[in-house]
Each structure stands twice: as C-alpha cells, then as structure tokens.
Design brief:
The longest helix has 17 residues, at 204-220. The chain contains 18 helices and 31 strands. It starts with a helix and ends with a helix. Strands 1, 4, 5, 6, 7, 8, 9, 10 and 11 form a nine-stranded mixed sheet that branches. Helix 12 (416-424) packs across helix 18. With 589 residues, it is an alpha+beta fold. Helices cover 30% and strands 22% of the residues. The protein binds oxalic acid (OXD) and manganese (II) ion.
Length: 589
C-alpha cells in the first residue's frame, strides 16, 4: 500500500461518496487475481473456458446496450470551452463534477471498491506515468491487470508525488441514459459512470493514455499518439522502428503483427511488435524521437482475426485472455467469432446470452466489436525491446486511411510541417470497400479525432513545435493507402504481409537509399523501387496505377480540406494554412 497523502485523501473522499461495503487494494500478486477470477466465475460475471484448449482464459458478456465506446457521451471538461476545441464534446467542470457525483453517490452500496494502482509504460521508466483506478467491477480489475502494469511496485515508484491520474469508475445500473465518460485534463481526473465496456472503463487506455496524456504531452513537451509501433529487421539484423496511425477498421493490429511474405522470410526479414494502439514519444538524449508502448496487452477486435489474417494475434489469445461478447461453444467450452474459421459451432450461446446455432442462425454469434484482452508477452513477435523503458528510436511516422481513389499506395511528405499537414487531413471513406462506391469522407486527423484531450488546432501546433525541436533528426513522415479499389470494387493492393514491401521502401527513403518522384502532394516511389518479387498476378503496371497522383482529384480534395480547416478558426496554425496554399499552388501548375 501507500502513504501518499494525495492518494489516501482522494480515496477517502471517493469512499465517502460511493459508500462501498469493502475496499480491496490490488497488490499485483497472482494469488489475489486468481481469487478474483474465482469470485467472478461464482457470480456468473465471467465463465472459465476449456483449460486444456484455452488455459487461463475467460468469457464475459457486457449488457447488450453497452458494447462500444460512446463518443457522443464522452466529454472534455476543461475550464474554458474553447480549450476543448471544436472536435470534442465539452461540459463545464463544475457542472460535470456535480452531475457525476450525483450519479455516483452511494452506487457502491453492497459492492466492493477495488483500488488499482497502475503504470502506463514499464514501471519506473522516464516515459511512464502512474494512474489509480477505483472500480466496482472485477472484470475491470482483471482487464487492467492484463492491459497495464498493476500492483504495489507502482506505489513504490510514485512515492509521495502528486503526479498521478485519478480514475473513478462506477458501473451503477449500466443505464445508457446516464452513461458519461468525462475527462478533466486540468485536474488529471477521469470519471466514467454507467458502463462496463472496455474502452469506456479501462481508464488507462483511451481515457488516460490518449486523452489526458495528449494534454500532458503538450504541456510537458512530448507526444501521446494513437499509433502502433513496429520494428522491421533486415537480413543484416538491423532493426528500424516505425509508428503508424490509422482510423478504426484499417488493419492496425494486423500491420503491427505483420508476417513477412515468404521471399522476405527466406532472406531473414522479421517484423517485431512493440505496440498495436498507442505510442508515447519523447525526444531522447541523442535528439531523436523515441517511443514506448504504454500498454501491457492488446485489446483487439475479435471478428475477422484468424490463422490467415493475423496468426500472431490469434496465438496471442490462446492463453491468459479475457474474451468479451464473442460466441460460446458449449460442446468444448471454447469461443468462436465471425471470421475465425468456416466451422461455426451448432451448440452455442451468442454474445447476448441466447442459444445460438452457427450453422442455421441468421444472427451474429459474436458482436462485431467483440474483443480479446490478451497479454503482450504472449505475442510470438513481441519485440525484445517491449519492456525497455528507454523506448525505441523512430525512423518513420506513417499515416493512413481507407480511400478508394485519390490517395496513392504510399507517398512521403516534403518535410516535417508538410507531414503534419498530411496527418491533419487523414481520412477514411465509409463502406466503400463493400459496395465499390466511393463513400463519405470522414476526416480523422492523426486518427486522434475521438482521443485528443484538448483543442485540435493547438494539437497541430504542438506537432509543429516538436518538429522544430527535432530539426534534422525528425522522423520522416509518410502516408499509405492499402485500400485502392478497381472498377469492380476489388482491392488492388494485396495488403497484409505484402505491406512489408511498402515499409521497405519507406525505410529505404529514411536511409537515403532510393530516389522518388516529386508530385504536387509529395514524393511517390518509382514503381521499380517497390519489390514485387514473389507477388503473383500483380504487374508493375498495376502498381504504377495505384501510385499515380491525379491532380484533378486532389484539387477536389483540397476543397474538402479547406472546408474541414474552417472548423479550427484562428487556432489553425499558420504553418498548416501555408501547407494547404502550397498544395493548391502546386496543383494549379
Ligand atoms: C480501439 C479504437 O479500440 O481505436 O483501439 O477504437
Ligand atoms: Mn485504437
């Protein structure tokens, strides 16, 4: 336990508010966690799965009205409304505290308060930050114990410091009408009520490691980003690290755990996963940008994960994993989800808890946002640097989106500020893949739209200032688009492991090994410089097609960006305005 006065005072106040029957301090010891697993199974909160096939694995079902993050009920409660910016919902902090305390009041009656001390980042690393989450859910405790580093060692590094993030989670009655996920960046505080779904209640993840941390990073001179981190090892054994940001449903976890194509494997290439969702980045003593993954596990989407799409993720989930809202195969007490294999169970229970026959039912067995919470150490390609508190040095930052046309397979920004511009205009098209139609463009700057804890215009400015500090040691910035469609609506680029071909070009560019063609939007590869060896039925002409930059389409894109930028008013940095003007000028030439 701790003698930290700021911690003890806060817990006393919260106890007086929510009035639990008991208080249990999470120590991080396996015996305590095992007791909690047993208790959760005895109450039906979790189901223990087949110990031989899925050792140490459990199934949990959330309430049917509580299956995803709730962006419309997520608030940034900064003192001034303008500091939350035009892309966040805002609530006055005084009003928010009052409303939340009214909801939370007495809500732990008959329940236990669990006190979870946790570290985002390896405990004691200069990147790491401490949080304390109070919860009335064993499911939350057990998920936090996978996703973060929990236990007494965290108190030891915190000492009597007041630099820690307060998190209060109250399940209450899981009332969707009274569900709120509120962040108080100026107070290092998060309050989440009336939900039991991971993204809303595992407060270390989106709430702390992105929304609160992005604000801390701006004030303290570092960056909290919605990015995977991977290392590409070449046959000489050299490893270069890349971070990448994509909106949801663009294959971020798949890219993070990529398996190289056969020809690359034979030569000795390997991809190492450092993180699949969040990167905290700081300028190191050598002036370069270094990154850690603040998390300790993967909270991945289950449907679509299979032996082909992501064998590494699948293997990661084979032990010590909590599954949420997937189908339960009663014949062998295992789990199943759409896209796992072509053999759905006939004698099963669906994610809602109803009897389900996967062969005959028209309903889905698993919720489309069903999840696995799996320890990072299970991952067959977890980086040897994963626990390194000094982080890994970043050579390239990659942005991406899902665009049927317009955006080429890959391009490099002209320089850092132009790269910030490229990140700021990131976008995906809805449903384009399924129908072949060009969908609605949704802008999602740096994939941070739902996760930036302050004014996005100031966030762009912070990126520009980081570039000034990094100078010529700054990582190079790229954009990729794996999702170009042909006239029939088929994906042109094979994607998955073959994306390594593009990563190789990116790394070669960082090392100054290859030339590129200058276009209005940036540098595009000469098709010959992307290795197509071993890629069946894919010609260099097809590649040329998806590398083309169509100035007409980009002129339209520039109009869309102009419109989008209006949102930020005078908090749009002049540097980004200048980048847009520069793009328009080059397109007009
Ligand atoms: C996630 C998300 O769950 O970005 O990681 O929605
Ligand atoms: Mn994410």
């Amino acid at each position: 336990m701790t003698q930290n006065k700021s911690v003890l005072d806060w817990i006393e106040n919260m106890k007086a508010l929510v009035t639990p029957d008991n208080v249990v301090w999470i120590t991080g010891e396996e015996a305590q966690l095992e007791e909690l697993r047993k208790e959760a199974c005895s109450t039906g909160e979790m189901i223990k799965l087949n110990e031989e096939k899925l050792p140490g694995c459990y199934l949990h079902r959330t309430a049917v009205n509580d299956v995803a993050r709730v962006e419309d009920r997520t608030f940034i409660c900064s003192k001034k409304e303008e500091d939350a910016g035009p892309t966040n919902h805002w609530m006055d902090p005084e009003k928010a505290y009052k409303m939340l305390y009214d909801i939370a009041k007495g809500s732990y009656k008959g329940r236990t308060m669990y006190v979870i001390p946790y570290s985002m980042g390896p405990v004691g690393s200069h990147f790491a930050k401490v949080g304390v989450e109070l919860t009335d859910s064993i499911y939350v405790v057990l998920n936090m114990a996978i996703m973060t580093r929990v236990g007494n060692k965290v108190w030891d590094v915190l000492g009597d410091s007041n630099d820690w993030v307060r998190g209060l989670h109250c399940k209450c009655q899981i009332d969707a009408e009274k569900r709120y996920i509120c962040h108080f960046p100026e107070d290092n505080t998060i309050i989440s009520v009336n939900s039991g779904y991971g993204g809303n209640v595992l407060l270390g993840k989106k709430c702390f490691a992105l929304r609160i941390a992005s604000f801390q990073g701006k004030n303290e001179g570092w960056m909290a980003e919605h990015m995977l981190i991977l290392g590409v090892q070449n046959p000489k054994g050299e490893i270069k690290y890349v971070t990448a940001a994509f909106p949801s449903a663009c294959g971020k976890t798949n890219l993070a755990m990529l398996i190289p194509p056969e020809g690359y494997r034979a030569k000795g290439y390997k991809v190492w996963t450092v993180g699949d969702d969040i990167a905290w980045m700081r300028i190191g003593p050598d002036g370069r940008l270094w990154a850690i993954n603040p998390e300790n596990g993967f909270f991945g989407v289950a449907p679509g994960t299979n032996e082909k799409s992501n064998p590494n993720a699948l293997h990661t989930t084979r032990q010590g994993t909590i599954f949420t809202n997937v189908a339960h195969n009663l014949d062998d007490n295992t789990v199943w989800w759409e896209g796992l294999d072509k053999n759905p169970p006939e004698n099963a229970v669906d994610w809602k808890g109803n009897p389900w026959n996967g062969k005959t039912s028209t309903e889905k067995g698993a919720h489309p946002n069903s999840r696995f919470t799996a320890p990072a150490k299970n991952c067959p390609c977890i980086s040897p640097e994963f626990e390194n508190g000094a982080g890994v040095p970043i050579s390239a930052i990659v942005f991406g989106g899902r665009r049927a046309q317009t955006t080429p397979l890959v391009y490099q920004s002209r320089d850092w500020n132009n790269g910030v511009f490229v990140g700021s205009i990131m976008a995906s098209e809805t449903t384009a893949a399924a129908t072949g139609a060009v969908g609605v463009v949704r802008r999602d700057p740096m994939a941070m739209l739902p996760f930036c804890g302050y004014h996005m215009g100031d966030y762009f400015k912070h990126w520009i200032e980081m570039g000034e500090k990094l100078g010529d040691k700054a990582p190079k910035i790229f954009n990729v688009n794996w999702f170009r469609l042909d006239d029939e609506g088929n994906f042109i680029w094979p994607g998955f492991g073959d994306n390594l071909r593009v990563l190789e070009w990116i790394i070669d560019r960082c090392e100054g090994k290859v030339d590129a063609e200058e276009t209005a939007i940036g540098y595009v590869p000469h098709a010959e410089d992307i290795n197509l060896e071993g890629l069946k039925d894919f010609s260099i002409d097809t590649l040329k097609g998806i590398l083309k930059v169509d100035n007409g389409q980009w002129a339209k894109e520039a109009e869309g960006i102009e419109e989008f930028y209006k949102k930020f008013g005078d908090r749009l940095p002049a540097e980004l305005r200048a980048e847009l003007d520069g793009l328009k000028e080059r397109l007009a030439k």
